[in-house]
Amino acid sequence: MKGNVLARKWRTAHGYKDKGGVIVVCDGVVCGWVNELRNPEHWVPGCIAVDGLGNQWVSVGGNCLNGANRWKSLSSISN
Known about the structure:
- It contains one helix and five strands; from the N terminus they run H-E-E-E-E-E.
- It is of the alpha+beta class.
């Protein structure tokens, strides 16, 4: 998936390969890293969070003004 590829490249380029946490991708752009998946209201609906193992979540519900309501699992990929 595109979000997974972007997150992996960003982790490598910025020295976050072994730091855990999740990379958040919105509209095909890496928007940041957080140490754990939380606070969906800080992200608009449709953002993808990718952890170091390739597991992915999408922010859902809510709206662009108030942020998403929750994170929904998209996949579980074990390496």
